[in-house]
């Protein structure tokens, strides 16, 4: 998961697997057992209880990861910028209809599960909750073209994105990880029209966006 935050965090990747391979295999076996069990039976209730135990562990790990990541991003920063993603549309099924069946349905289903597993809404709530403690500002920006815009020359073209991770500007030749480019552009959009203030009991580390950086950066006397 990558978001645009202050300069010291732009381009830093934060990710974690919430379910172990053993738990995933056991959960699949329980799903198969659930499908074979009779509705209303004691075996079915026991199977569902075992599945809830695994999912409870996954939720706890996800919430812990969100809380730790939010603290790392928010503390000491005046501004945190998130992309205003429409996850509902992003995770829409590609199955299609009988008349017009979808293509690459299995791959799209895997992508949808990966997006939903990250719990973006829960992460945003954790960031906003932490920001209330420090006085930082959380802004959301339009994510359009953030990963296809060169952060050096500003040229926008879909051919910049050579692959999921590779970004090469066709105008100036700038090379960087595509997600890092997206984070920098997201942060730059968040800085537009924003004046940063010092979070409570924390120094401000604001990314300079011009020759005269906005916000309060000098230490107080």
Can you offer a commentary on this structure?
The chain has 221 residues and is mainly alpha-helical. Helix content is 43%, strand content 7%. It has helices spanning 21-36, 42-74, 87-90, 105-118, 120-134, 178-191; strands spanning 79-83, 137-141, 166-168, 175-177. A hairpin with a 6-residue loop joins β3 (166-168) and β4 (175-177). α1 (21-36) runs antiparallel to α2 (42-74) and α2 (42-74) packs across α5. The longest helix has 33 residues, at 42-74.
List keywords for this structure.
221 residues; mainly alpha; two-stranded parallel ribbon; two-stranded antiparallel ribbon; 6 helices; 43% helix; disordered N terminus; disordered C terminus
How would you summarize what this structure contains?
With 221 residues, the chain is mostly helical. The chain has helices at 21-36, 42-74, 87-90, 105-118, 120-134, 178-191, and strands spanning 79-83, 137-141, 166-168, 175-177. A hairpin with a 6-residue loop joins strand 3 and strand 4 (175-177).
Largest sheet: 2 strands, parallel
Assign the structural class, choosing from mainly alpha, mainly beta, alpha/beta, alpha+beta, or little secondary structure: mainly alpha
Rg over alpha carbons: 22 Å
Write down how many β-strands occur, each being a DSSP E stretch of 2 or more residues.
4
Q: What's the multimeric state?
A: single chain
Low confidence ranges: 1-10, 207-221
* Portion in beta strands: 5-15%
Cα shape: globular
Termini Cα gap: 38 Å
Q: Averaged pLDDT, please?
A: 78
Number of helices: 6
Instruction: Give the fraction of residues assigned to helices.
Output: 40-55%
Strand order of the largest sheet: 1-2
């Amino acid at each position: 998961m990558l978001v645009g935050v202050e300069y010291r965090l732009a381009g830093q990747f934060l990710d974690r697997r919430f379910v172990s391979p053993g738990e995933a295999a056991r959960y699949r076996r329980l799903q198969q057992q659930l499908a074979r069990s009779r509705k209303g039976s004691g075996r079915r209730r026991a199977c569902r209880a075992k599945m809830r135990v695994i999912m409870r562990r996954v939720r706890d790990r996800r919430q812990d990861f969100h809380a730790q990541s939010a603290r790392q991003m928010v503390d000491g920063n005046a501004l945190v910028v998130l992309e205003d993603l429409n996850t509902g549309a992003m995770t829409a099924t590609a199955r299609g209809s009988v008349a017009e069946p979808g293509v690459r349905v299995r791959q799209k289903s895997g992508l949808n599960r990966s997006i939903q597993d990250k719990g973006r809404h829960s992460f945003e709530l954790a960031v906003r909750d932490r920001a209330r403690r420090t006085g930082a500002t959380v802004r959301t920006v339009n994510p359009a073209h953030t990963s296809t815009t060169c952060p050096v020359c500003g040229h926008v073209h879909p051919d910049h994105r050579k692959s999921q991770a590779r970004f090469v500007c066709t105008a100036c030749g700038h090379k960087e990880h595509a997600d890092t480019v997206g984070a920098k552009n997201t942060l730059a959009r968040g800085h537009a029209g924003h004046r940063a203030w010092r979070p409570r009991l924390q120094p401000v580390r604001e990314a300079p966006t011009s020759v005269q950086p906005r916000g309060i950066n000098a230490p107080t006397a």
